[in-house]
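sry for the spam today, last one i promise. C-alpha cells for design, 634 residues
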C-alpha cells in the first residue's frame, strides 16, 4: 500500500513538473516569436538615445522643372541634461551666445528629460552662432542638422506656394494643402547610454531621413515672372489698392500663372500681417464682375437661340427703364440701332438687359449655375470663396436686368476665368488645378500624374464658335481694342465695376478688369486681369487692364512659341493708335514695281539685282506704317 502511494506521488510530481516545463517552453516561445519586437524596443529604449535629424520637405517645381520652393540646411541646439556636469556654466555660456534669458536656458539644461530641444531660440541657427557653440565643447550640448524652407524667388507666387512654420509644417497655400505629401520622415543619430544617461563608448547608428515628395506644378515660371512684373508696374503706375492676374489653359484647366498684390515674402512671413499672407485674392476675393460677366449672358442667349448676332437689332437710346428703375448706358445718348454683335462690341448695358429678358430669369440663372458660379471651383488650394448670387425665387425684373450685365452678383476671379474658358473651348467646364505631378524626391521619377477633370459640356461647339467670334470683334473693333496684337487673333471683354462700401456703390472706386484669350480660333491661353481702385487714370477696364493683358499675351507668344494667325480681323484704329497695315507681297516684282507697291515704307536692300527674291517681314503680315522693309535682290 505504501509502495503504491509513493509511485502515485512520483507520477503527480512528474506531471506537475512536466506541465511547468511545457508552460515555460510556451512562454519562451511566445516571448521569442510574438513579443520579441516589443520587448526589444523597450529594452533598447532604456539604454539608447536618438538625436533627431529633420527631413527635407519635398521641393516644389514648375512645369519645366525650375525650382520654386526648396530647402537649406541649418543647425539646431539640443541638450542632454544628464550629461551636463555644470548646468549653471552651460546655461550661462549658451544664453550669452544666443542672447536669451539665463533663467530660461537653465530650465532647458535642467529639465528631467532624456533629450531637450532648445526651442525657439536654439532653432535654425546661423553658421556663426553654431560655430561659437561648437567651439565651447560642452558636455551634453549637441548641434543637429535641421532643414529650413527656402523660396529662391521671394515674393513670386507667394500666395500659391504659401509658407511653413518653424517646425516645417505647412501653414498656407500648397504647403498646407499638400503638407502630408511634402513632409518627409525624420532620421536620427542613435547613441547608447547607461541608466544615468551617461554616454557609452559604443558605435553610433545613423538613421537617414527621407525627403518628402516633390510637387510639379502646372505653373510656368517664365509666364509667372511676366505676370508678376506687370502687376508690380500697374501698382506703381496707378497707385492701385490691389491687383489680380490669372492665366489658364482653357482646354485642361491648368493654371499657368496666378498672382496678386499685395504680396509677401514667405521666407520672412512673420514681417506681414495675416490679412496679407492668408488671402489669396484670385480664389478668395469676391466682387461684382461688371461687363466681363456679359460673356455668360451672351453665351446663354446664343445657345438658347433667343438672339441672332447678325440679323437681330436693338435700339439704344442711352437708358432703359425696368420696373421704375433707370439703367444707363455708358455712352451718353446711347448707341442708336445696333446689331447684337455691335451690342457686344460696344458693351451696351441696355442691350444686355434686353438679352437677359429674352432668356428670362429661370434660364439666365440656370446657365449662371451651369457655368459654376455660386459654388467653389474645386481648385487644389485652401481658402476658396463661393461668391454670392441672387436667389432665383427673390429675383424681380430689376435683379434679372442687373445680373445680365454683371451687377448685383458677386464672383471670384477663378470662377470668372473658368466660366469664360468653358464658353470659348467648345463648351466644356474643367476643374482648375495647380499640381500636375507627384515626383520621387531624389530621382524625380513619376509617382502619380494628375489628369484634367472635365466636369460637363454646357454649350454646343457652334455656340462656342460664335462667342469666340463676337469677343474677337470686341478686341478688334470695340472696347477691348487696347489688347489687340497685330498678326494674332485675340478675343476678350472689358469690365468696369463700382466697388461697394458699407452697402453703397462708390462713385470713385472701381475694379477694372479684362478677360481675354488667344488664338481666338483655337484658344491656348486665357488671361484675367483686375485692378482695384486705380488712380489718376480714366476708370475703364479697356484703358487700364486691357493693356496689361496685352503685355502678358506678348510674353506668352514668346514663351509658348505661339505662331501668327491667319484671317486676323483688322483693327478699327482711333487717332491715338499706332496704325498697322498689311504688307504687300512684292516677291518676283522688279525693283520699280516693288517701290510703287511699298510706297510709304522705308526700304533697305541686299544685293544689286533688279528682281526681288525675298522680303522681310513676311508678306501678308501686319506691320507699322512707315516701318522699314528689307528686300533681297537677285
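last one done:
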Amino acid at each position: 500500500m505504501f509502495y503504491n502511494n509513493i509511485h502515485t506521488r512520483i507520477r503527480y510530481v512528474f506531471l506537475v513538473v512536466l506541465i511547468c516545463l511545457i508552460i515555460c517552453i510556451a512562454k519562451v516561445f511566445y516571448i521569442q516569436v510574438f513579443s520579441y519586437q516589443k520587448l526589444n524596443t523597450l529594452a533598447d529604449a532604456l539604454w539608447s538615445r536618438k538625436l533627431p535629424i529633420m527631413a527635407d520637405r519635398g521641393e516644389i517645381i514648375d512645369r519645366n522643372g525650375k525650382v520654386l520652393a526648396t530647402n537649406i540646411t541649418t543647425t539646431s541646439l539640443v541638450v542632454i541634461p544628464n550629461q551636463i556636469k555644470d548646468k549653471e556654466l552651460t546655461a550661462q555660456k549658451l544664453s550669452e551666445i544666443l542672447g536669451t534669458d539665463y533663467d530660461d536656458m537653465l530650465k532647458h539644461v535642467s529639465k528631467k528629460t532624456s533629450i531637450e530641444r532648445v526651442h525657439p531660440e536654439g532653432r535654425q541657427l546661423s553658421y556663426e552662432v553654431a560655430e561659437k557653440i561648437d567651439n565651447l565643447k560642452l558636455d551634453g550640448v549637441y548641434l543637429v542638422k535641421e532643414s529650413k524652407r527656402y523660396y529662391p524667388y521671394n515674393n513670386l507666387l507667394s500666395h500659391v506656394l504659401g509658407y511653413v512654420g518653424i517646425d516645417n509644417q505647412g501653414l498656407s497655400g500648397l504647403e498646407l494643402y499638400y503638407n502630408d505629401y511634402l513632409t518627409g520622415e525624420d532620421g536620427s543619430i542613435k547613441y547608447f547610454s547607461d541608466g544615468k544617461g551617461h554616454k557609452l563608448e559604443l558605435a553610433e547608428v545613423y538613421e537617414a531621413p527621407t525627403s518628402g515628395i516633390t510637387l510639379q506644378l502646372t505653373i510656368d515660371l517664365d509666364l509667372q515672372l511676366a505676370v508678376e512684373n506687370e502687376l508690380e508696374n500697374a501698382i506703381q503706375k496707378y497707385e492701385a489698392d490691389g491687383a489680380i492676374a490669372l492665366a489658364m489653359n482653357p482646354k485642361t484647366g491648368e493654371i499657368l500663372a496666378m498672382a496678386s498684390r499685395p504680396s509677401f515674402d514667405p521666407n520672412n512671413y512673420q514681417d506681414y500681417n495675416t490679412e496679407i499672407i492668408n488671402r489669396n485674392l484670385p480664389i478668395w476675393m469676391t466682387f461684382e464682375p461688371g461687363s466681363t460677366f456679359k460673356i455668360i449672358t451672351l453665351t446663354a442667349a446664343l445657345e438658347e437661340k433667343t438672339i441672332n448676332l447678325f440679323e437681330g437689332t436693338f435700339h439704344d437710346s442711352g437708358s432703359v427703364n425696368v420696373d421704375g428703375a433707370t439703367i444707363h448706358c455708358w455712352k451718353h445718348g446711347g448707341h442708336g440701332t445696333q446689331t447684337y454683335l455691335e451690342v457686344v462690341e460696344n458693351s451696351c448695358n441696355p442691350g444686355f438687359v434686353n438679352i437677359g429678358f429674352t432668356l428670362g430669369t429661370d434660364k439666365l440663372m440656370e446657365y449662371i449655375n451651369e457655368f459654376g458660379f455660386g459654388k467653389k471651383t474645386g481648385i487644389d488650394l485652401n481658402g476658396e470663396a463661393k461668391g454670392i448670387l441672387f436667389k432665383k425665387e427673390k429675383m424681380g425684373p430689376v435683379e434679372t436686368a442687373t445680373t445680365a450685365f454683371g451687377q448685383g452678383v458677386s464672383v471670384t476671379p477663378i470662377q470668372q476665368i473658368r466660366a469664360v474658358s468653358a464658353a470659348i473651348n467648345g463648351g466644356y467646364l474643367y476643374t482648375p488645378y495647380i499640381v500636375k505631378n507627384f515626383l520621387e524626391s531624389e530621382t524625380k521619377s513619376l509617382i502619380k500624374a494628375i489628369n484634367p477633370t472635365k466636369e460637363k459640356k454646357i454649350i454646343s461647339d457652334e455656340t462656342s464658335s460664335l462667342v469666340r467670334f463676337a469677343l474677337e470683334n470686341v478686341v478688334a473693333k470695340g472696347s477691348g481694342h487696347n489688347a489687340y496684337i497685330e498678326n494674332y487673333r485675340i478675343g476678350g471683354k472689358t469690365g468696369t465695376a463700382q466697388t461697394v462700401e458699407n452697402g453703397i456703390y462708390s462713385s470713385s472706386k472701381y475694379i477694372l478688369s479684362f478677360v481675354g484669350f488667344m488664338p481666338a480660333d483655337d484658344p491656348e491661353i486665357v488671361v484675367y486681369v483686375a485692378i482695384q481702385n486705380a488712380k489718376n487714370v480714366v476708370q475703364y477696364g479697356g484703358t487700364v487692364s486691357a493693356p496689361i493683358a496685352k503685355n502678358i499675351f506678348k510674353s506668352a507668344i514668346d514663351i509658348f512659341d505661339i505662331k501668327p494667325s491667319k484671317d486676323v480681323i483688322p483693327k478699327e484704329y482711333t487717332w491715338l493708335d499706332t496704325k498697322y497695315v498689311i504688307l504687300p507681297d512684292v516677291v518676283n516684282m522688279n525693283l520699280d514695281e516693288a517701290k510703287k507697291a511699298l510706297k510709304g515704307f522705308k526700304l533697305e536692300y541686299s544685293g544689286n539685282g533688279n528682281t526681288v527674291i525675298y522680303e522681310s517681314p513676311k508678306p501678308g503680315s501686319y506691320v507699322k506704317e512707315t516701318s522699314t522693309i528689307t528686300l533681297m535682290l537677285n
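The chain has four domains: 2-34, 49-216, 221-268+277-559, 580-633. ok im logging off now
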